[in-house]
Amino acid sequence: MLVVQKFGGTSVGTVDRIREVARRCIATQQQGHDVVVIVSAMSGETNRLLALARQVNDDPSSEHERELDVIASTGEQVSVGLVSLAIAKEGGRAQSFTGGQCRIITDSSFTRARIKSIDGQKIHEALGLGKIAVVAGFQGIDEEGNITTLGRGGSDTSGVAIAAALKADACEIYTDVDGVYTADPNVCPSARKIARISYEEMLELASLGAKVLQIRSVEFGMKYGVKIHVRSSFNMNEGTWVVPEEKQMEDVLVAGVTVAKDEAKVTLLGVPDKPGIAAKIFRPLSEANIVVDMIIQNISDAGRTDLTFTVPRGDLKRAVELIKRTLPEMAEAGIKTDDSICKVSVVGVGMRSHAGVAQKMFELLAEEGINILMISTSEIKISVVVEAKYAELAVRVLHDGFGLGNQPAK
Amino acid sequence: MLVVQKFGGTSVGTVDRIREVARRCIATQQQGHDVVVIVSAMSGETNRLLALARQVNDDPSSEHERELDVIASTGEQVSVGLVSLAIAKEGGRAQSFTGGQCRIITDSSFTRARIKSIDGQKIHEALGLGKIAVVAGFQGIDEEGNITTLGRGGSDTSGVAIAAALKADACEIYTDVDGVYTADPNVCPSARKIARISYEEMLELASLGAKVLQIRSVEFGMKYGVKIHVRSSFNMNEGTWVVPEEKQMEDVLVAGVTVAKDEAKVTLLGVPDKPGIAAKIFRPLSEANIVVDMIIQNISDAGRTDLTFTVPRGDLKRAVELIKRTLPEMAEAGIKTDDSICKVSVVGVGMRSHAGVAQKMFELLAEEGINILMISTSEIKISVVVEAKYAELAVRVLHDGFGLGNQPAK
To answer: What value does the mean pLDDT take over residues B235-239?
Structure first.
């Protein structure tokens, strides 16, 4: 078997932790596997480097953004060197690779590049010599040979993309939790670890607030059929496998419940009820890279309507200012905002074949007196916006109401 | 003109110093020159990185030495990113280059690689766009694409080698002194800055204790005819030009006086006076990478002789142990060591055409009662070993005795 193991910044944050990573890689190799390790920068290192860069130039032009990647990418480069040295110290053989050395080719969007292709040949050569290949996560080079970084969380994506390129049998993502849970165990004591979950479900959970896996890494896994194993770097327990959908997954109505707290709601009052009006409102937001999530338009009978939508909480002020500046006539009748909301979601491929999930969700919330402010659905998820103070209660009510705490984890 | 400017670790040691480097580069460019900047790691950074590596693995096998270079090379990579950002902040345009990106090809001797070739094309492209090219010193890649470092002081060599490859009109080496002096001004108050000095003289001075330029960088400069300008990063004064020999340099008997204090003397008593005996003695030292400098053999009449030689002081203990172990019969009659010696040298191309320099040197020392323990000469230098306590006195006596303090600096 060819196994890719990805370790985050905390897992290589100290010399002792680096030794543990080395021992785990060697143990995996001794089980007869080829091992490729992807590592992040030591925890805190990327922030230190970028802070140094900001001290020198707090607002580089787009031409000079490339230098941020030159600087930030050194964090992972140090890590791969150290992990390789640790493997050698523990009696193994290792070879490190920068993104450029193993030809992780990306586009040229510095600080947020996307992987275009990976040439696995050099890694295969190292594996063929009995070495553990230690690859820098989070980075690549563009066609011109410029160093690029994938943006925050990009090491997960590196791991899965390399697993895809090498046709690895599994991509293990090591983290500080045991796997993916039916809900946040800190909020919901009855939450259970999920044994197997489909890419689609994982994507929805990741999009809706679960932080255990980066969204783009799941997309990559789904696209190339990479089996992702999310597990703890502190023990040898099986974690959660993220895999193609399986028959028995459909038997479960809801796989998980999640909550996103970093949202805010904007309501435009008395908007003219005319075709094209939504496009007009959302164009400036889109151009400013503000992601609008849910949108609700209330029908009115006076040729005017109220329009409500949600944006990331951090973008609320900017969104309102943009609308006031670019569309003063929209702001005329007033803009209301609310940043004490949250979005609670239930996710599960079982919804496709089972009716009544939405109905049951609304009833469960109603029983606790939780008022629903907005609703949005997809084929395998239902999200509702409720007042922020109900966040934890709503998660517990839905989690237990859908029987997630009582049944063996999927 | 195309000007290469090399800045050491102290010159980029803080954010403020980095800004000063940026301003100097821009000022040079605004005088109408193309500018290529070579930078070292921020002072202390290489040591920090190597200490981290040592914590993980204090004695990597030769296979894993490559990882030390992966780690150490990040120091310069961060510097080139920061200097480029600083140039941008000051209103200029810059592009950074790692050793690999500007194709500085070296052999594969990790941690002490030698430059084989440099492809200046990418740098010329950046210059053609009106950018300042900012190149990481101290590093390259081998034919396989492995990252290599040139070993301590290698940034000077990078600077001169890049200047040679680009056919630069000058290579400016910025340092914390004003240039090359006729003697160490701390020892000899009448020392003067030398305006122009030949490669050969500079090479001798660097080999004999002057620390202002790394020896290999001078060799490179001589080989490719690169004009090196050693100057201060703290002011705009002209420093010392290291250039091909010029006619008027021969008019000066002695260009400079220098002293090396890190030497020690070993005397083997009663060595058999037979052919091949020297080879037998020095082979184990050579194999152990101990550099033997001066060697003197006293003629004896009893078929036995005393043999004296000097080694770096740090290698003294090892050298004696080696001889005792590998050649016990040599050690029979006794080994005497002396680590309180120093080597004082006078250097100048004028010696070639002027007789009597050695005689004058001996007389000057004798007048002060300084006993000469060993003598060694080359075409353009005379070195003597004297007791360490006379080091400063000998330098002053020779410096002023040869008229270096009285004449305008060459």
So the answer is: 93
Instruction: Give the total number of structural domains in chain A.
Output: 1
| Cross-chain Cβ contact B147/A71 below 8 Å | no
Q: Mark yes or no for CB contact B82/A52 under 8 Å.
A: yes
Nearest-Cα residue of chain B relative to residue A49: B78
Q: Give the distance from residue A29's alpha carbon to the nearest chain B alpha carbon, in angstroms.
A: 18
Q: Which residue of A has its CA nearest to B100?
A: A145
Q: What is the pLDDT of residues A207-227, one digit of tens each?
A: 887 778 888 899 989 999 999
Is residue B377 one of the residues assigned to a domain? no
DSSP codes of every residue in A57-119: -SS--GGGHHHHHHHHTHHHHHHHHHHHHHHHHTT--EEEE-TTTTTEEE-S-TTS--EEEE-
CA distance A362 to A370: 9
Which member of A53, A96, A146 has the closest CB to residue B70? A96
Would you call A71 and B56 a contact, using CB atoms and an 8 Å cutoff?
no
Residue B304 in domain: no
Q: CB of A103 within 8 Å of any CB in chain B?
A: no
How do residues A162-217 score in pLDDT, each as one tens digit?
999 999 999 999 988 899 999 999 999 999 999 999 999 999 998 887 778 888 89
Strand ranges across the sheet with B341-347: B256-260, B341-347, B381-387, B374-378
Quote the pTM value: 0.84
Interface test with B, best of A12, A42, A46, A56 (most B CBs within 10 A): A56
Q: Within a domain: residue A403?
A: no
Which CATH number goes with the domain that contains B151?
A: 3.40.1160.10
Q: What is the pLDDT of residue B410?
A: 45
Question: How would you label B251-287 residue by residue, b for 16+ Cβ within 10 Å and e otherwise?
Answer: ebbbbbbbbbeebbbbbbbbbebeeebeeebbeebee
Interface-testing mutation among B42, B62, B74, with chain A (most A C-beta atoms within 10 A): B74
Give the domain extent around A88.
2-175
Q: Could you give the ipTM of this predicted complex?
A: 0.83
- B36 within domain boundaries: yes
Distance (Å) from the C-alpha of residue B53 to the closest C-alpha of chain A? 6
Other beta carbons within 10 Å of B149: 26
Establish if B50 touches chain A: CB-CB under 8 angstroms: no
